[in-house]
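Posting for a labmate who doesn't have an account.
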Amino acid sequence: MNIQYQITLHSYWHCGSGLAAGAQADALVIKDLDQLPFIPGKTIKGLLRDAVNELRFLQEKPECDELYKKTFGLQPTENNTNGNIEANKSETFFGNATLVQEEADAIKSHNLQQHLYKMVASTAIGSNGVAQDHSLRTMEVTVPCTLVGEIIDVPEGMVSELEQAMKFIKQLGSGRTRGLGRCTISTKKGGDK
């Protein structure tokens, strides 16, 4: 079964690219070839894996059963690093979360991509209440928006568990403890393949 989902971001958010822009920014957001924001499927997968693990812990369910393995695969550990990477892969595919196509087309046609991003600065404050030397950092953030995506080939027994896990996620990306990335994730069941 496939699950279509929607992420509504309520605050600025930062999903990092691992790149910097010299003196302009210490951290840039990840963008597609059209300079539009997106959240990689592997990030969605990691968020959902963590949320499912938390919910299973709270419900005293087994951490890793066959449905879990089919959905998330296995993380390489000392017990399963037999050199066979295929044995660790999941059967479920987590697609990227992107802007709705009509919105993306409108933004591109009017060349408005630069208005989707802002720079925020932060600094470390010492015990004396004064900013510490050389601690100023700037980060590119994306404005609040709505993204959509799809999870493909979800085992039937995991659908409701993933839907519950999505409700459990309240923030994503960097700076979550500083108010960035507040979000709501909702689902809409899709059809079979």
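Reply:
Got it, the structure tokens are right above this. The chain has four helices and eight strands.
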